[in-house]
Design goal:
The complex is a heterodimer of chains A (179) and B (280). Chain A is of the alpha/beta class and 179 residues long. Chain A has one domain: Fe-S hydro-lyase, tartrate dehydratase beta-type, catalytic domain (fumarase). Chain A is built from 6 helices and 7 strands, in the order βαβαβαβαβαββα. A 5-stranded mixed β-barrel of chain A has the order 2-3-4-5-7. Chain A starts with a strand and ends with a helix. With 280 residues, chain B is an alpha/beta fold. In chain B, the strands form 3 sheets. In chain B, strands 4-2-5-10 form a 4-stranded mixed sheet. The chains are: A alpha/beta (179), B alpha/beta (280).
Chain lengths: 179, 280
């Protein structure tokens, strides 16, 4: 593995354009959770011409829905869900200036292509190590769609969440560069 | 006739789902350790180390191993000499699921298929009940994650497809799944019966101890070994980042089928292979 790069959100175009597929990154700062139902609801709001509950310009979305926080903890277990299910909604959010997505697994070729045009990055986090990963969350703030239960949008403050660059701003794709 | 109060079933089911979500079975841990020992790629080794560390942390801190604490799937063997008292049998199981997911701080992951609104208590559960001889109840709780279930499927081959047909379908499914189901995976394969029986067999195959060969049919035991070797030569690796460990095991189950049919199902299980059982 190459040297680990430490980044703090918001991620600027300059920082993002320096990343390449395969880079190991530790992300700190604020990100927003949103997965299946939240994506659908956001795009439905856009279709009606409404504003989103979060201004996504320059932001990072974490495809995640944590377990409830047990007493004494900031959050329960948390980890990435499989990203391809968000593909049908992703271009709409990239158009609003979304700059990073944290998930896992392969995405549609048009999404990997769109990363180039929007100078955005797709990061992969390890799935199924959610107890360990919960240690990287220092703060949780509810933002919107509470009725979606675990799929509500919350703002997470990260402290060095380990991820790998899967799709970079130059068309690089970690899964395609593998033997 | 032995009487078993429904609330006893509820408490057992609750305990099983909480325990399954916090504690990885010893056979799965051992199987991951064995794969770690033969990995030479740094990233594959790193991912497997983190998976093993996570199992420790989950146990120590009483946190779920994975944020996807699953759909509540149960296999129940109900002795024909048991009389359940005080409430209905399936209702008692559903209540156990409800309590496990509420009191155990587990994620509620069940929703209406069309509105996608959460049912709020992780019910309904999926319950497979078999009536068996005796006066006991055996309950196996299996929280099944959505990501690996999504990569599963079934096909109706022509009988002429033979063993090669089975192997080709299994390999095609694993390739298509790639990094999505959180490899290293366990591949459950069900052969024969009819469409739904093949699927149930493929899921039941996942209940076997990781890496244990089929104990009843040497043909399946051989195919399990052969398929595991081919799958691990694909190079998908832990989390899809490349490596020798794409699958921890292949488990196959089979039963006779119609002379016209050759059903084959593949059920993929992520590395957080959870199930716990109890006998009442």
């Amino acid at each position: 593995m190459s040297k680990t790069i430490e980044l703090t959100t918001p991620l600027t175009d300059e920082v993002l354009s320096g990343l390449k597929a395969g880079d190991a990154v530790l992300i700190s700062g604020d990100v927003y959770t949103a997965r299946d139902a939240a994506h659908r609801r956001m795009v439905e709001a856009l279709d009606r011409g409404e504003a989103l509950p979060v201004d996504l310009k320059g932001k990072v979305i974490f495809y995640a829905a944590p377990t409830p926080a047990p007493p004494g903890k900031v959050i329960g277990s948390i980890g990435p869900t499989t990203s391809y299910r968000m593909d049908p909604f992703t271009k709409r959010l990239l158009d609003l200036g979304l700059k990073g997505m944290i998930g896992k697994g392969k995405r549609a070729p048009e999404i990997m292509e769109a990363l180039k045009a929007h100078r955005a990055v797709y990061f992969g986090a390890i799935g199924g190590i959610a107890a360990l990963m919960s240690r990287c969350i220092t703060k949780v703030e509810p933002i919107a769609y509470a009725d979606l239960g675990p799929e509500a949008i919350v703002k997470l403050t990260l402290n060095k969440l380990p991820v790998v660059v899967i799709g970079d701003t130059r068309g690089g794709n970690l899964y395609e560069s593998l033997p | 006739m032995r009487e078993i109060p429904a609330d006893k079933i509820t408490e057992i089911v609750k305990g099983l789902f909480i325990a399954a979500n916090l504690e990885l079975e010893e056979d799965v841990v051992k199987s991951i350790e064995d794969c770690r020992a033969v990995e030479d790629s740094p990233i594959a080794s790193h991912v497997l180390d983190k998976i093993l560390e996570n199992a420790q942390v989950a146990k120590e801190e009483s946190l779920p191993l994975c944020q996807d604490t699953g759909l509540a799937l149960l296999f129940v063997e109900l002795g024909q000499d048991v009389h359940v008292t005080g409430s209905d049998f399936h209702g008692a199981i559903e209540e156990g699921v409800r309590r496990a997911y509420a009191n155990g701080y587990l994620r509620k992951s069940i929703c209406d298929p069309l509105t996608r609104l959460n049912t709020g208590d992780n019910t309904p559960a999926v319950i497979h009940t078999e009536i068996v001889p005796g006066d006991k109840i055996r309950i196996i709780a299996m929280p099944k994650g959505g990501g690996s279930e999504n990569m599963s499927g079934a096909t109706m081959l022509v009988p002429a497809a033979g063993e090669e047909g089975i192997k080709n379908y299994v390999i095609e499914m694993v390739k298509k799944a790639g990094p999505n189901p959180c490899p290293p995976i366990i591949v459950g394969v069900g052969i024969g019966g009819d469409l739904e029986k093949a699927v149930i067999l493929s899921k039941k195959a996942l209940l076997r101890k990781a890496g244990e060969r089929n104990p009843r049919d040497p043909r399946l035991a051989r195919m399990e070994e052969e398929l595991l070797a081919v799958i691990n030569a694909l190079g998908i690796g832990p989390q899809g980042y490349g490596g020798r460990t794409t699958a921890l095991a292949v488990h196959m189950e089979m039963m006779p089928c119609h002379i016209a049919s050759f059903p084959v199902a593949v059920n993929i299980q992520c590395h957080v292979a959870r199930h716990k059982e109890a006998v009442i």
